[in-house]
Specification:
The chain has 599 residues and is mainly alpha-helical. It contains 25 helices and 4 strands. β3, α14 and β4 form a beta-alpha-beta unit.
């Protein structure tokens, strides 16, 4: 590979990849027996050392490290200066990546190249989206730039003039009050700001308030002159900012003090969904994905009716579901049930030789209980190396206790413990921290949640549900994931409100209303990407289509197939397919795999 000389960020890299020789890419034949690596508590070190890798591993690690460092330095949310700094960073990396010799890279190197190019392009698009969001809030926060500059001057290590700073702080309360008066005038003229923009603004102001509180604490008390000048104007400014935030919440959003946060969300629209789908390498439109979910519902409805009839409830599947909800653990017994379900799933997998489970992975997982507060947004299990169990505590209201027990009954739990632990998220995390860990920056719900959901489908096919009650439990969750595709995409397309999403989960899936509310709140609170909820079932379907292509055809064993996915690291699943096929993606890769057509 020829040497590169590219100016990047803080200096000149001699090359993105300097001394790495091109390494042959793995083939299906080479990967057919990965069990030779993970056999005991210590893996086979010779086999581990000989694993083929990517020439771009160091490149990705450097990109990730530099980006994280910039994020710590430029830490003011929505700051135009921060956006411009990151735009320069991404453009410099984009230029350097474009100068690399693509043809000489191995399969793994080409996959990493395409992943990084895709990540940089999406990051630049996301900065444009952030700028649009900030402009929408501009009328409500005309004073924000002054607050941002206080922190940014500190980050530039400038020494503030105490008297001048006090003057800036003294002017801000009136500017904040003027902004509030402008909104009051809009309310009187029945021309209130959009609830979505107002909610985003209130949250942005809360973040900015924390930032400037940190800024003030950096100087106050350490610099006596600064403290002498700024104490009084600082307090008035901070109070005015807090009052404006509460004004937006109470007068515009209608939130009474002490009441729960409303479920507002911030829909990204059809164009935003198309950009996100391109980033996830999903060559479908939002409407096509909704149609796929509706098609899945047809199969799920048929299976639920069969289970209902087997339980003696005829075609009244809701009555069958209510019966199953009542089969919950007694108080204090849920952790025992989760433990036994986890061991049952591992035994099922090992007897059938479906996937490698390193002994250490079985040893280290742990269990914790979710607090009543966490259960407001996470009414069901959360998982990984630690499975967090949702079940009533003694201080919860009686009705909340019943809903929690019903929503986490034995047969619902039997369909989710393996999703969260083994072979789901815990095994997934265990392996991706040990194989191709440099790809962790490409985490995607279609790979992350799709893997765990795929196993729900796979275990269904293999007869894991032993009774009609078990089948109802597994079908409930699959209906829930189909519903997630419909309500999340419909919300971002502007076709469904959060309240309509709650009603949809109650009426179409059979959720307890409190659990449906928590689910929708979790989906739209802003901590999950717009496609996250759709990624569960759609990612599961992608891996299911791969299983048919490689295992169903006899080209791979179950164990080799599953191990190769886990050892490949996190990435959009169309690139998993390229890796399994041993076919390098084109440099200007465009997703084209219509996976749902193959199922």
């Amino acid at each position: 590979m020829r040497r590169l000389a590219q100016q990047i960020v803080m200096g000149t890299y001699a090359a993105l990849v300097a001394a790495s020789a091109t390494i042959p890419s793995p083939t299906l034949a080479q990967s057919a027996s990965p069990r030779s690596i993970e056999t005991t508590g210590v893996p086979n070190l010779t086999a581990l050392a000989s694993l083929e890798g990517s020439e771009l591993r160091s490149v990705l690690e450097r990109f990730s490290t530099d980006r994280s460092a910039l994020g710590r330095r430029w830490d003011v949310q929505y700051s135009p200066t921060r956006r411009e700094r990151f735009r320069a960073f991404y453009h410099e990396w984009q230029s350097a990546l474009g100068a690399m010799e693509y043809a000489t890279l191995s399969l793994e190197g080409k996959i990493d190249y395409v992943l990084l190019a895709n990540e940089i392009r999406y990051a630049l698009e996301s900065l444009d989206r952030e700028e649009t969001l900030y402009e929408e809030m501009g009328q409500l926060i005309p004073f924000a730039g002054t607050l941002m500059e206080l922190q940014e001057a500190r980050r530039r290590l400038e020494i503030p003039d105490p008297a001048a700073t006090a003057g800036i702080l003294a002017d801000l309360p009136e500017r904040i009050t003027e902004a509030q008066r402008a909104v009051e005038a809009q309310l009187e003229e029945d021309d209130a700001p959009s609830a979505i923009v107002a909610y985003r603004t209130a949250n942005a102001l809360r973040g900015l308030q924390r930032t400037v509180q940190d800024w003030h604490a950096y100087y106050a008390g350490y610099d006596p002159l600064f403290t002498w000048w700024t104490s009084a104007p600082w307090k008035r400014m901070n109070d005015a900012l807090g009052e404006y935030i509460e004004f937006l919440r109470e007068r515009v959003l209608g939130i009474e003090p002490g009441e729960p946060e409303p479920i507002v969300g911030d829909p990204i629209g059809a164009d935003g969904l198309r950009r996100d789908l391109r980033h996830e390498m999903i060559p479908y439109t939002p409407d096509e994905l909704i149609a796929i979910a509706q098609r899945e519902f047809e199969w799920l409805d048929e299976q639920m009716l069969r289970a209902s009839r087997d339980l003696g409830y005829g075609d009244d599947w809701r009555a069958a579901l209510e019966y199953v909800k009542g089969l919950h653990a007694e108080p204090g017994r849920q952790t025992e049930i989760v433990r036994d379900l986890a061991h049952e799933a591992v035994t099922f997998l090992e007897v059938r030789d479906l996937v490698t489970i390193p002994p250490l992975a079985k040893e280290i997982w742990r269990m914790e209980m979710l607090s009543p507060e966490r259960q407001l947004v996470s009414p069901f299990f959360l998982g990984g190396e630690v499975i967090r169990v949702s079940f009533p505590t003694d201080e919860m209201e009686h009705a909340d206790k019943l809903m929690s027990m019903r929503g986490n009954n034995i047969h619902f739990s039997r369909a989710t413990v393996h999703h969260e632990l083994i072979p789901g998220h815990h095994l997934q995390g265990f392996m991706t921290r040990r194989y191709n860990s440099h790809r962790s920056i490409f985490r995607t719900p279609f790979w992350g949640e799709g893997w765990a959901l795929y196993w729900e489908m796979q275990l269904w096919d293999l007869g894991f549900p032993q009774t009609a009650e078990d089948r109802v439990g597994m079908l409930f969750w699959r209906m829930h994931r189909a519903a997630r595709i419909i309500f999340s995409l419909s919300f971002h397309l502007g076709r469904m409100t959060p309240q309509e999403a709650i009603d949809f989960l109650v009426e179409r899936v059979g959720h307890e209303r409190a659990n449906a509310t928590a689910e929708v709140r979790r989906s739209f609170a802003g901590s999950y990407s717009p496609l996250y909820q759709a990624g569960y079932m759609l990612g599961g379907m992608q891996i299911r289509a791969l299983h048919e292509e490689f295992v169903g055809s006899g080209r791979m064993t179950d164990r080799a197939f599953h191990d190769m996915i886990l050892q490949g690291g996190r990435m959009p699943i169309e690139l998993v397919r390229a890796r399994l096929r041993g076919e390098a993606p084109q440099r200007e890769f465009q997703a084209s795999w219509r996976f749902a057509d193959e199922l």
